[in-house]
């Protein structure tokens, strides 16, 4: 899919999170699995081995476990901003489930979109935004236009005529010096 | 209608059918019919989160406290989220059904509501916000402090903060969907509960971390605007014994076009104290006067200089301190509210 058709967004921070204190944005996580189907094996292993540790380390996340007969296993994450992510962990092992859960835990719940920029700053320029007035001499405020001085063409290099005149002057000076040397005393 | 609901349940189930290589002949007419019924029945009514099966109120309350990093008792939290209107409704319901126990007089329930917590929380939110702002912006007149305070502690702002902290799902109240005012009150009740359980200082830090941080990226000078900035500037400079302000055009361009731009600077004793652009000389002068006042009040870059987070942990804030009022800065009464407009009022 081309970037023109994908929705885009700027980086944003919900509720200035982290300026004061950090609040984990994952509010609630529900594990849905089947007790008998093979594709739920990984999530069942995860629940047996890792889930209690996860719940202890993240006491701010409410954890629910829902067995559902003969259905695909899902991890459903609900975020503080009201977003809900249904994540299918079909045929994944306990380690994979654990890693996807970590991904869901560290997200902020904002929809994943193409980011216009990978960075954000409140101060895009230290010097301030450029305007046509930046570094403009103040005397222009009182100058009467048209001004003869300012209307003249600006010459940064000597013209061809000027160069030839300079060369001629140099030559003349040199021949003058020679002449003085050859002069009989 | 019952048949309609049953059909809709069928529709939800059929969407879960896993992949097949063909469509049954009955599917198209059935789904068409179901679609018609769905349109007739209209959208499903919004339900509270607690109506779903994966909901444990005690667990959610515990997670709420842990999420904020605060040690709050289960009973206090429960109380903070229970509104008076909910208790009243429950009592009414019990009376109506005739299931009020005998020891309950007139169907009164033995449930605490958050009335007292709201009262305490409101006082803390209001007092601390003002005290913090006075401490951080000592040159801003009292009217400006009040305008920023009104912006931060309005129901809209507290609802925004509270709902992003997951308060909406936990509220026990008569109204659903929960009203803005109810969420605002719940936020205040939580602050009150914190003060009760953990002491006032923790409650103040909570306000600093969640309410005052909302000033980041905001332009403080837009929350409080003066009606006649040049007049006020003149009076303030006069009161301070400084030379009266003198506006000068610093730059101008395109004066005979529709995109004219003038940059006006305000000088006092040949010192540039403020400058601003504008599309006419008068607008530019007014904006320059506002800029000069922002410089005098110390709010040009206020949001960036606020001490928040770790820098705001050990501030010695005097709650009794007051900033000078605008009248005292000007040396004469300006006629009350007519002189200033705050964002909350407009």
TrEMBL record, chain A:
<dbReference type="InterPro" id="IPR039927">
    <property type="entry name" value="Ribosomal_mL43"/>
</dbReference>
<dbReference type="InterPro" id="IPR007741">
    <property type="entry name" value="Ribosomal_mL43/mS25/NADH_DH"/>
</dbReference>
<dbReference type="InterPro" id="IPR036249">
    <property type="entry name" value="Thioredoxin-like_sf"/>
</dbReference>
<feature type="domain" description="Ribosomal protein/NADH dehydrogenase">
    <location>
        <begin position="35"/>
        <end position="108"/>
    </location>
</feature>
<keyword id="KW-0687">Ribonucleoprotein</keyword>
<dbReference type="Pfam" id="PF05047">
    <property type="entry name" value="L51_S25_CI-B8"/>
</dbReference>
<comment type="similarity">
    <text>Belongs to the mitochondrion-specific ribosomal protein mL43 family.</text>
</comment>
<keyword id="KW-0689">Ribosomal protein</keyword>
<protein>
    <recommendedName>
        <fullName>Large ribosomal subunit protein mL43</fullName>
    </recommendedName>
</protein>
<keyword id="KW-0496">Mitochondrion</keyword>
TrEMBL record, chain B:
<keyword id="KW-0689">Ribosomal protein</keyword>
<comment type="similarity">
    <text>Belongs to the ribonuclease III family. Mitochondrion-specific ribosomal protein mL44 subfamily.</text>
</comment>
<dbReference type="InterPro" id="IPR044444">
    <property type="entry name" value="Ribosomal_mL44_DSRM_metazoa"/>
</dbReference>
<dbReference type="InterPro" id="IPR036389">
    <property type="entry name" value="RNase_III_sf"/>
</dbReference>
<keyword id="KW-0496">Mitochondrion</keyword>
<feature type="domain" description="RNase III">
    <location>
        <begin position="77"/>
        <end position="199"/>
    </location>
</feature>
<dbReference type="Pfam" id="PF22892">
    <property type="entry name" value="DSRM_MRPL44"/>
</dbReference>
<keyword id="KW-0694">RNA-binding</keyword>
<keyword id="KW-0687">Ribonucleoprotein</keyword>
<dbReference type="InterPro" id="IPR055189">
    <property type="entry name" value="RM44_endonuclase"/>
</dbReference>
<protein>
    <recommendedName>
        <fullName>Large ribosomal subunit protein mL44</fullName>
    </recommendedName>
</protein>
<keyword id="KW-0809">Transit peptide</keyword>
<dbReference type="InterPro" id="IPR000999">
    <property type="entry name" value="RNase_III_dom"/>
</dbReference>
<dbReference type="Pfam" id="PF22935">
    <property type="entry name" value="RM44_endonuclase"/>
</dbReference>
């Amino acid at each position: 899919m081309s970037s023109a058709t994908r929705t885009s967004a700027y980086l944003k921070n919900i509720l200035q999170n982290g300026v004061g204190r950090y609040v984990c944005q994952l509010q609630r996580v529900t594990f849905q699995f089947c007790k008998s189907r093979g594709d739920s094996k990984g999530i069942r292993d995860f629940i047996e081995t890792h889930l209690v540790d996860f719940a202890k380390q993240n006491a701010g996340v409410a954890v629910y476990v829902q067995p559902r007969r003969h259905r695909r296993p899902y991890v459903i994450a609900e975020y503080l901003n009201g977003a809900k992510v249904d994540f299918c962990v079909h045929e994944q092992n306990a380690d994979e489930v654990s890693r996807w859960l970590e991904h869901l835990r560290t997200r902020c719940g904002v929809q994943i979109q193409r980011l216009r920029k990978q960075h954000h700053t409140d101060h895009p320029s230290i010097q301030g935004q450029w305007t046509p007035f930046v570094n403009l001499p103040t005397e222009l405020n009182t100058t009467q236009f048209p001004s003869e001085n300012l209307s003249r063409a600006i010459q940064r290099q000597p013209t061809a005529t000027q160069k030839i005149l300079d060369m001629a002057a140099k030559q003349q000076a040199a021949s003058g010096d020679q002449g003085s040397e050859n002069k009989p005393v | 209608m019952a048949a309609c609901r049953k059909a809709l349940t069928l529709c939800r189930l059929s969407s879960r059918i896993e992949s097949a290589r063909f469509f049954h002949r009955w599917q198209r007419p059935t789904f068409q019919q179901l679609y018609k019924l769905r349109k007739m029945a209209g959208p499903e009514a919004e339900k509270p989160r607690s109506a779903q099966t994966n909901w444990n109120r005690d667990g959610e309350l515990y997670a709420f406290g842990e999420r904020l990093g605060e040690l709050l008792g289960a009973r206090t939290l429960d109380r903070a989220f229970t509104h008076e209107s909910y208790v009243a409704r429950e009592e009414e319901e019990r009376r109506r059904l005739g299931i009020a126990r005998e020891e309950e007089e007139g169907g009164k329930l033995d449930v605490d509501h958050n009335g007292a917590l709201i009262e305490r929380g409101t006082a803390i939110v209001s007092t601390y916000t003002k005290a913090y702002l006075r401490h951080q912006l000592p040159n801003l007149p009292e009217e400006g402090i009040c305008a920023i305070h009104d912006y931060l502690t309005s129901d809209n702002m507290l609802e925004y903060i509270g709902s992003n902290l997951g308060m909406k799902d936990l509220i026990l109240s008569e109204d659903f969907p929960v009203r803005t005012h109810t969420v605002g009150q719940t936020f205040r009740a939580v602050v009150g509960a914190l003060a009760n359980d953990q002491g006032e200082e923790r409650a103040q830090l909570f306000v600093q971390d969640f309410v005052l941080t909302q000033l980041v990226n905001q332009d403080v000078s837009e929350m409080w605007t003066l009606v006649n900035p040049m007049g006020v500037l003149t009076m303030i400079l006069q009161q301070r014994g400084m030379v009266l302000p003198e506006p000068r055009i610093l730059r101008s361009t395109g004066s005979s076009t529709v995109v004219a731009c003038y940059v006006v600077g305000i000088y006092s004793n040949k010192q540039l104290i403020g400058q601003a652009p504008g599309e006419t000389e008068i607008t530019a002068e007014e904006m320059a006067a506002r800029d000069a006042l922002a410089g005098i009040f110390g709010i040009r870059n206020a949001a960036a200089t606020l001490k928040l987070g770790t820098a705001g942990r050990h501030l010695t804030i005097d709650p009794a301190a007051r900033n000078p009022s605008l009248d005292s800065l000007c040396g004469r009464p300006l006629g009350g509210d007519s002189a200033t407009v705050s964002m909350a009022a407009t």
